[in-house]
Write a structure and sequence with these properties.
mainly alpha, two-stranded antiparallel ribbon
Length: about 190
């Protein structure tokens, strides 16, 4: 309370208190989004935690160890436990706050993602079509890239999951952030823009 002059009792959650403290200490003025197409595109791009079952077993074939099998591909295991992803993004990257607009056709035709530097004062939010090449499916099977919002319905469940659903009487048809190998059109799932 003394440092930020904010009373935690007036906030329902710690993230809302943190948000207010961040706005207060940076003195940033956030632009009000009045273009509904921009708002809908940004809203469609919101991602949360993923819902998945990851591979829990892997066997290394480390060329630096005595039990290395030369007949098999060299394979290493790296275990990561990454914390504070949002805090890291906020600390190391500039966040958008104003002057939101769509690029015109000429700007889109000449745009090169590789020319955008990480310390640029101008950032871009891209809406893209993605084709996930089949040759990457087995390599990425435990963690497919580009998760999408998808409504999981009862017909998509395995027999085991259907049995669990009936036992627990849990509702199934809700939206999840699911990794998939599909082909995605307009990855933020918003209307096309001119």
């Amino acid at each position: 309370m003394d440092y930020f002059q904010l009373d935690p009792v007036h906030f329902y959650t710690t993230p809302s208190l943190t948000w207010s403290a961040g706005i207060k200490t940076t003195n940033v003025t956030l632009e009000l989004l009045t273009d509904s197409d921009i708002y809908l595109m940004l809203e469609a791009g919101i991602r949360g935690g993923m819902c998945q079952v990851s591979k829990r077993y892997s066997k290394a074939n480390n060329k630096y160890l005595d039990n290395f099998d030369e007949l098999l591909e060299s394979k290493f295991i790296l275990s990561l436990d990454v914390n504070n992803l949002y805090g890291t993004a906020i600390a190391f990257y500039k966040l958008p706050k104003s002057e939101f607009r769509f690029l015109n056709k000429k700007e889109m035709d000449t745009f090169s993602l590789m020319s955008v530097t990480s310390d640029s004062n101008v950032g871009y939010i891209l809406e893209v079509d993605i084709f996930y090449p089949p040759e990457l499916h087995s390599k990425h099977n435990s963690f497919p890239m580009a998760p999408q919002h998808e409504t999981i319905n009862y017909d998509m469940l395995s027999p085991y999951q259907k049995n669990l659903s009936s036992i627990s009487q849990q509702r199934v048809d809700n939206e999840k952030n699911c990794p998939d190998f599909g082909q995605f059109k307009e990855i933020f799932d918003s209307d096309s823009h001119d």
